[in-house]
Amino acid sequence: MHGFANPKRFLSLASLLTPIFLIGGLLVSAGALWWGLTQVSPDRLMGETVRILFLHVPAAWLGMGGWTAIALSSLVFLVWRHPLAALAARAAAVPGLVFTLICLITGSIWGRPTWGTWWVWDGRLTSMLVLAFLYVAYIALAQAAEREGVSARIPAIFGLLGAINIPIINRSVVWWNSLHQPPSITMGQSAIDAEFLVPLLIAVFGFSLLFAGVVLARMRALLADVQAEARLRRRAMEAV
Known about the structure:
The chain is mostly helical. It has helices at 7-38, 53-80, 85-115, 123-148, 153-162, 165-175, 194-239, and strands spanning 185-186, 189-190. The chain has a two-stranded antiparallel ribbon. A hairpin with a 2-residue loop joins β1 and β2. α2 (53-80) runs antiparallel to α3. It is globular. 32% of the residues are buried. Keywords: Cell inner membrane, Cell membrane, Cytochrome c-type biogenesis, Membrane, Transmembrane, Transmembrane helix, Transport. Residues 19-180 form the Cytochrome c assembly protein domain. Belongs to the CcmC/CycZ/HelC family. It is a multi-pass membrane protein.
């Protein structure tokens, strides 16, 4: 793992994987969405509104997955001082926020015909909204730390503390009396019919590839900014 912390090796690998992940993710996600939105039958209870799960569920998983990536990268940075760990955390924040917002928006669209309202202060919905606020706070904190030259340990500690919300989101429908349906997929079993489950899992895989490609692209851009700033500082020192 330490070998890939070398910026040159990382950039070489990321340059190869980024287009593969992005193009593959777009193709797989588009195919899964086409399958789910046009080919599966309406659900017996939810009717046509069930089709939103092919976007809503992957977005929810990747919203939580994005913060999990921030927490793990922050841990690596704090413990092992991995050079690229802080950049990885920052790179995962924006796509994680985007997927969290998609989850909230599609959930509200689904909730209007199902619950009769756009929003309820349900445990699952509220904890996902808190996750969106955590993302915004982390992005602002990381940008401020970079702008002011403050140690990256501060946003890293925040990234770890914010991970407390992830198990709360996951178990909210179990811990509280929730309008949100209980977990449909658990370890080793699924309550979802295969007609819906297969395109759903393909959509999750496709969006995961897309997420990974965006994170790698953002890491390359952030690393390029760091290297450019370092070159400017060296030139300024030499000029003095």
